[in-house]
Amino acid sequence: MTAVWVRGGMIVTASDVFAGDVWIEDGVIRQVGVVRPSGEAHIIDAPGMYVMPGAIDEHTHMGMPFNGTVSADWDTETIAAAIGGTTTIVDFAIQRRGGTLVEAIETWRNKADGRTAIDYGLHVAITDPRPEVIAEIPEAVKRGVTTVKVFMAYKGEMMVDDTALFQTLLAAREVGALVMIHAENGDAVVLLQDRLYEANKRAPRYHAESRPLEVEAEATRRAIALAKLADAPLFIVHVTGREPMEEIRRARHRGQRVYGETCPQYLLLDESYLVLPGFEGAKYVCSPPLRHASHQEALWTALAEGVLQTIGTDHCSFNFREQKHMGRDDFRKIPNGLNGIENWVQLIYTYGVCQGRISLSRMVDLISTQPAKLMGLYPRKGTLAVGADADLLIYDPSGSTTITAQTQHQNSDYNAYEGFVVQGKPQWVLLRGNVIVQEGKHVGTLQDGRFVPCSPYSAA
Amino acid sequence: MTAVWVRGGMIVTASDVFAGDVWIEDGVIRQVGVVRPSGEAHIIDAPGMYVMPGAIDEHTHMGMPFNGTVSADWDTETIAAAIGGTTTIVDFAIQRRGGTLVEAIETWRNKADGRTAIDYGLHVAITDPRPEVIAEIPEAVKRGVTTVKVFMAYKGEMMVDDTALFQTLLAAREVGALVMIHAENGDAVVLLQDRLYEANKRAPRYHAESRPLEVEAEATRRAIALAKLADAPLFIVHVTGREPMEEIRRARHRGQRVYGETCPQYLLLDESYLVLPGFEGAKYVCSPPLRHASHQEALWTALAEGVLQTIGTDHCSFNFREQKHMGRDDFRKIPNGLNGIENWVQLIYTYGVCQGRISLSRMVDLISTQPAKLMGLYPRKGTLAVGADADLLIYDPSGSTTITAQTQHQNSDYNAYEGFVVQGKPQWVLLRGNVIVQEGKHVGTLQDGRFVPCSPYSAA
Amino acid sequence: MTAVWVRGGMIVTASDVFAGDVWIEDGVIRQVGVVRPSGEAHIIDAPGMYVMPGAIDEHTHMGMPFNGTVSADWDTETIAAAIGGTTTIVDFAIQRRGGTLVEAIETWRNKADGRTAIDYGLHVAITDPRPEVIAEIPEAVKRGVTTVKVFMAYKGEMMVDDTALFQTLLAAREVGALVMIHAENGDAVVLLQDRLYEANKRAPRYHAESRPLEVEAEATRRAIALAKLADAPLFIVHVTGREPMEEIRRARHRGQRVYGETCPQYLLLDESYLVLPGFEGAKYVCSPPLRHASHQEALWTALAEGVLQTIGTDHCSFNFREQKHMGRDDFRKIPNGLNGIENWVQLIYTYGVCQGRISLSRMVDLISTQPAKLMGLYPRKGTLAVGADADLLIYDPSGSTTITAQTQHQNSDYNAYEGFVVQGKPQWVLLRGNVIVQEGKHVGTLQDGRFVPCSPYSAA
Amino acid sequence: MTAVWVRGGMIVTASDVFAGDVWIEDGVIRQVGVVRPSGEAHIIDAPGMYVMPGAIDEHTHMGMPFNGTVSADWDTETIAAAIGGTTTIVDFAIQRRGGTLVEAIETWRNKADGRTAIDYGLHVAITDPRPEVIAEIPEAVKRGVTTVKVFMAYKGEMMVDDTALFQTLLAAREVGALVMIHAENGDAVVLLQDRLYEANKRAPRYHAESRPLEVEAEATRRAIALAKLADAPLFIVHVTGREPMEEIRRARHRGQRVYGETCPQYLLLDESYLVLPGFEGAKYVCSPPLRHASHQEALWTALAEGVLQTIGTDHCSFNFREQKHMGRDDFRKIPNGLNGIENWVQLIYTYGVCQGRISLSRMVDLISTQPAKLMGLYPRKGTLAVGADADLLIYDPSGSTTITAQTQHQNSDYNAYEGFVVQGKPQWVLLRGNVIVQEGKHVGTLQDGRFVPCSPYSAA
Ligand SMILES: [Zn+2]
Ligand SMILES: [Zn+2]
Ligand SMILES: [Zn+2]
Ligand SMILES: [Zn+2]
Ligand SMILES: [Zn+2]
Ligand SMILES: [Zn+2]
Ligand SMILES: [Zn+2]
Ligand SMILES: [Zn+2]
So what's the pLDDT on residue B458? Predict the structure, then answer.
């Protein structure tokens, strides 16, 4: 494998921005700064561009079964991800009821291997917390799956009770696994859903009414309490608004190891999308739901301040015409989720960095370095440091484009960010030194991506 | 029935302190202030004494089954209550598993009627929340039982899940019933208990370790969230420390109708009692457990500030020699509860009023007026207003005594406040105009007390 | 003086609401409840009406010099007050630069005596804090002036610095005087005013821009800090919004004796009034200024919760045509203040009680009992207890009226609440047993009112 | 100048820790990672050592006049600093009453040039805020002094009032200067001091009593308010405890650009040192004073969480025998300040990193990268990025030593951290590529250091 020499760009890490080169050999970064070539090299000239570690999306659902259908799959979505600047995802392997964690991990690896354009790691979600299942956590860790997801909602399907959550926290702590929480009170959701349905409130907008912020704030608080009792670290996914965020802040300021993620949709979209004319609102049905726009600025500040540590997409893409229409007469049957992995880096850059809400370094921290650290991928991933995998995103900040489903690579008939104008775009993307995106075009294959085992958690 | 003329005392209400007389006819207050006698009257001279509405203890457990034994019963404990200045209690009728609410109410009325020295109302506790049980709430209200208790702890016995709690809140709201919460996360408690037990940590002190403050704070937050979603008022019993109290404060300052009670034991005792030599700590086992002394001042401030609205005793008296010893080798088997109804008024007066933490009027508010309002006994009970039942506590503030089991009337071989010095004492107590305590001695009978139906809640 | 018998009304005190009579002799309440007449009496039948203690407005400026003009005077404004249900005001005697406190008190007593329809007390405002002036505080207390006002704004006129404020707090504490604070950072205000003026921003709306909420929040925090250091109680007048209110809340919850007042204008009007067409906005120029409407609900909750203890009017009435027009070309010259004393009770009843934000008892507490307690007028004023002055407000809750300057008694060419619809109205008002308002009409004289000495502060 | 090759160390930046080399030419970092030498080089082998950017102490007082004496001077203290791992300080040039800012800057440059072992920048402190002085701020910025200090305490000497502070904020904002605040209410301090002195409370411990935390919290809040009104960024120096820290947190979470520093003495020492026997407490007199130990953990958490951004020493060294004894009979005359620059890096490493309170990267961030960014020294200083000055601290984590005055290089007869055990020590220190400390020994000269102009602030 020839060396690669990225020349003349502006290098951006989680702490620094400086002009310099990157020299890559054997898929690994060997020099950063003023490079002295040690032989032949493929040269990429990057003047005027930002050279960053590839984005790491710690929250995706590729080909995930949901209410009898399946979300868009690895083959299309990982190519879209690559084009968007993402070089690693961490997807959720979901335990089958009656099944085991090992089975879930194997199922997911089988789905992904050979069908992914970028590297991936796995979380495993416990949905059927039999004692022998919780006892599998050490085995999962041995297999490089060091993050365990628990759903406090989706009653009757994936939800587990406080006892199981507590036991999971205890078992995870023993082997350095990190527990990730979908925080909504599932009992309350079902009651609210049924009351709305019975009151003939069945349109998409009632999805949001059935899962108010309080439902999320409560569950967040509860998970934090159980983690404190178990003396275990905790990661709250998809924080949507002020109150749950404040719960995290309070816990952190008491010294507890609690981490939080938010997603582009909670930063940029809001509940008004759910009342679009016709059935259009269904496109924006995800859980937790979109909130009032007034929460957005609070989330940005929380990202800037370090109250939240990462951004993930929760990419879970369904098409509108068939899949979303399953809930035509009953919002409870609309598959939950929306797309975002193709455009999230551009969106965060445009609405975060260009609008002065976060610095360029903080962006890299939020979308690459922190995810890598918290998920156990660091220092192999998530940084431009010497010795790291040469996963590079070379971003050209010039020019602007308008997002539209017509030109997207995500396999869907709509794009959640239709009409958003974004500044700049990923120009080259390297995966372990290989160019997989060249001048904005995917030039790699679905054999490029590999499974990356994660290490056990140690405080980031 | 002759009139009664209480002459020359210092009248204390929740808002005022003034010199004046009280004139009583037919068991009801007819005049307050400068009285013009309208005929013969039994005269009680009260110079130098405080004339207050009798204390109302909204939180008692008389003759309550617990872990195979039964707490001290109506006959002894209501006499002790009367001597201590309490003229009404509201006791918890506990639904039998498989039984109904109406059955619970009847059982409790049968226990009490003819065996109580003072008036009483009832709460009903739902422990087996079958749909038909929740549907009984309107019937309970019709029978004068307008407060519904739900336990979030005591798993496998009285604990109900979030669904049942939510349904209870919805059903209660419809008929103006107020839901009362024992807030501890029962799942977490059982796990912590079992871990301690298995680690050979079986002494009384581990009772407290198995129910840390976080367990209470979490459940408090959860109940508040569900009440908000149900748009129902909520009453949190026995708040023990800063964190759960702060949850109530936050909710109230958002405008939510949440009320909180604390108890003398959380204001005056602390966790150090649980590590007394030998098995002595068992005397102080109650749930939630006693906390670190540093929480006491925060609770007093919360009472003074109106963050908490009432004081109740949670009187649930077991003797040490036999009953508490059931848990000699296993703290989980120690009956939970301690006594307090005989001395609580003196204790609050001494450590609250005399030490400047609350005013005399605020004491009356906390131990009589607010309980009456929140429990639906007002304006019949809880005030010295004209038209109210003539339930009077005439308190002589002179002199001090030391509390000791040797002279108590509570049926127990210990007093939780042994050795506490208190200032003043109840001198006369009138129940609907009848003198039941005269110069500190009980002169009434167990036929004096009556069931008092409560009215549906309306914001106090 | 004949007795007065108020019959058949609904008596409302700060803690109770009950049907009953009031019997008055020699200007003092003798019986409350079922009255047994002891002779002849003037009878007032009050069925369907609320019988409350007369309102006490602890914050008025009658005939106050301001920027070369003088606010509306005792003769008209105290009659308007009486008609509105107010039986006592506490007005601010302002020290003259170079003058003394005793001089200020005498000046104000001379202004008021013989020209007031209702009773009055006085605060004294220190504006020139020479050592000998601060040394006068004990003498002021001896003369029945136990509350000392300090302005942190109005630089160059009434503002004093932190040293003087601290010394005042220390001196006041020694004799039980209570320090009242106008909390705005005067240095910042002047700078902001001048910058706006120089930028040609001279219309009324810029008055508000020159005194943003932050200016008030800061000064509130500072006064609280100094009071804590001096270990002195503190009373913050005219709290206008969330941030300063939160400062009070935090201090109280730490256990500090800090009290707060808000005014009808901050509960019911908002900054949009300042941008009314033409020069109309000048009518609403007061300091601190009106805020965004979103603060109103927070203030109501603070009143309901006890974070704030009283409502006062800050009545300081100027006419629009001449006085307000002094600032036609310069908002800094608009006399600060607006009227309110005629309608405040109706407004609080309508928008507070009828809209469910506060209970009837809490209203009485806020507009009568608490002001009396905090200002040292209690128990002579502020309650319907036996022995108290028979200052009664008999309020007929039936019917509604629309407030308009055309029918008002306040001496102004506008009414700040023009067009507000209010529910019910004061029907009779008694001052020490004398009927001064009969069926809504003033029937008293300007000789009715007397100076009422206030007692030194003791925690309410 | 020959190249320097730092080989085989563990490189630590604010975001990364990785094994690698550093290659330096012409005093500038040219390569980081796997270095390919481009010629001869002086080689430093660093296996097992941390290679970090040199520490930047943004808060020193070298040779500062105070109460008629002068703190330890540049010649000794900068050598001690170098030995301790510090390569740049930013010292405070203090305006003379009646003097100008330019004069202050020149005076300080004259003091430092030729007498400093390490690089330095300057802040300028405004103590006499005449209009023409505030108008000098742009000139100061031109001269590379972009941070302006304002004292809210030291009344009669350096203190300025709110008007001057506000004007300074406005003027600074115009040219991108950052205002730094010594936050204590000087009026309150003087009053408290005098009261203590008059009460014959004159020992060192009363220094702390005269400057309670509330004095600092209040001033912090006030400065934040004025900065908000001026829309200017703000830097609060030497935050000592929870309450002032919370003020910063609240402001930041509202989105305000407020930054905070704490110092080793507030993290590691506490008020108990002030009551050491004899006059020993005087050694620990600094302003703001040491606080109760319970504040320490809150400060560490604030550093970890990003509520506070930097650590500075506030090194201001006086000897005990003569200088501190000036206040033998009057705590007000004890020179304020203590030493720390020689040991601070070791102390933060030992008590921060080794005890798990902050990560190694966060330490580098707090003591080097963030100070560089906030003071306008970045990217020239504060990082190991290519192109940066080769200011390196090579820290050997092995071994431990006990701090003692007997072996220190600071010019004082005591060391504030006497007896503290520290882990590891600076082994080599490079200043712009020159070895100034070799195996723990100073090998440079007082001509090594240079003035470094700072750039105007831009949000870090
Ligand atoms: Zn989820
Ligand atoms: Zn998800
Ligand atoms: Zn309970
Ligand atoms: Zn109980
Ligand atoms: Zn004012
Ligand atoms: Zn005023
Ligand atoms: Zn300082
Ligand atoms: Zn300093």
Answer: 62
